[in-house]
Amino acid sequence: MALWSWSELVHACGLQQGTIGPDIEGISIDTRSLAAGDLFVALSGNPGPRFHSSSAHARDGHDFVQLAEKAGAAALLLSRDVGCSLPEIRIENTLDGLWHIGEAGRVRMAGKVIGITGSSGKTTARSWLESILSQQAKTHASRDSFNNHWGVPLSLARMPRDTEYGILEIGMNNPGEIEPLSRLVNPDVALILNVLPVHMGNFDSLDAIRQEKLSITRGLKDGGVLVVHEDIDLNGVSHKDVLTFGRSESCTVSAEVSVEKNKTGVRVSIRGKKYEFQLIPGGEHRVLTSLGCLAVVYALGGDLELACRSLSSLEVPIGRGNLLEISGRFIIDDSYNANPDSMRYALEALYQCQGGRKVALLGEMLELGDGGEQLHASILDACCELDGVITVGEGFANTKTRLGNIHWGHYASAADINPTELAELLHEGDTILVKGSNKVFWVNHFVEALQSALSSRNL
Known about the structure:
Number of domains: 3
Structural class: alpha/beta
CATH architecture of the largest domain: 3-Layer(aba) Sandwich
Helix content: 25-40%
Largest sheet: 9 strands, mixed
Number of strands: 19
C-alpha cells in the first residue's frame, strides 16, 4: 500500500482536487537521500519568524528540484513555479504544507504515539523503544535526531497508516518550541527523561527549562500518560495520570543495579512485580533510560517480559557512548553531544573501564550561559584520577591549569588535533573517552579519523 494517495495529500494541504498525480511512496526534503517514488518538499533554508533555526541558510529547496527529478521524485510540493514537468501541489508556504501532511498522518493513525523529550538521551530512548516495541507490534519511529520544526512533521508524514506504535522525539533549543510540536504529535504517552542545564544561554534559569520540558503535556491526548524521572518537579502541571521511574522504591518503575566488568545487572520493580535484564555498561544514565523505556511499555500495556529480553540485547546509537576496539586500544565514542550531567555520566563510564590507562578527550559544552566557566571547571575536577586529559575549545581555555601533570594539552578546535599523533600516545589496553558538544567532534567526524589512525599505524 502506498504511503499516501494523491487525493489524500491534496486534501491534507487544504486544497481542492485540481490536478491528477501519483501515489506517493515516501516524503523527502533532501535530494541526497530521496528515493524513487518520493514526494519532494521544497523547503526554504530559513523557516521564518515562527521557528528558531540555528542552521538557517539562504539555500532554497526549489533550487534542487532538478536533482530531485533525476533522483526519481514522483511529485513536488512547491510554493512557486520552477519549470518542472513533475506533478505538483502548490501551496503558499511549503513548511506549512509539511506540517499539514504530518498532522494528517497523525490523525489517520489509529495506534498509539509516544513523544520523547529531555535534555539528554532522547535518541537512545527512541532507538531502544523502537527495538522493544517493534517486536510487539508494527512500529514507526523518527530517524536520526529529527526532533525540531521540520523533523517532527516529516517523521509524522512518513508514518504508515497501519502503524500501531509511533515514536517521536521532541526537542528544543529555545523557549516555546516544545508545545506546538507536542500538539502536532498529540502523544498517548509523553516521556520526559531529564531536565539538565542544556541551552542555558537561551533560558533565564534551569526552572525555565523544566517548564519548557513539561509543556509536552499540553499536547497529550485526553487520558494520556505522562512518564517522568523521579527528580523532575511537576509543580504547575495539572496532568493526573503520571508514572515515575528512578532508583527510589517509591517510583512506579524502580531498580537495583549491580555492575560487573562487561555488563550491568538491573533488577526492576513495577508496582510490586519483579523483572530482570542485563544492560550494556555505560553509567547510571543508561540504566535510567532503560527504566524510562520500561515505564512507557507499562503505560502502553505492552509485554514487559519481552521488553526486558529486548533490553538485554540492545546497543546505543553511534556517538552516544559506544565502546570501540581498534588495535588493542579502546574508544568510548560519546561525541554526539554534551552537557555537564552527561559529561559526568561519561566520565563515570570511563572510570569503570578495566585494563590500561584512562584518558579523556573533552570538548567544550556550548550554550551554558553565564555559569559556563564554572561548569567546565567542575568537569575537570571530576577528572583528577584519570591518567590523561586533553581539552578542546574556549570553554576549557581558562580551566586547563586545574589538571596539573595529567593535562596532555589544550586545543582551540578538534581540527588542530593530529589523529595520528594522538594514536601514538595510546598504549595497548588504554581507553580514551571522546566527549563534547555536537559541533566539536561529531560534525567533524573526529572519531572516524582517530579510528583510521589507530588502524593504519603499526602500534
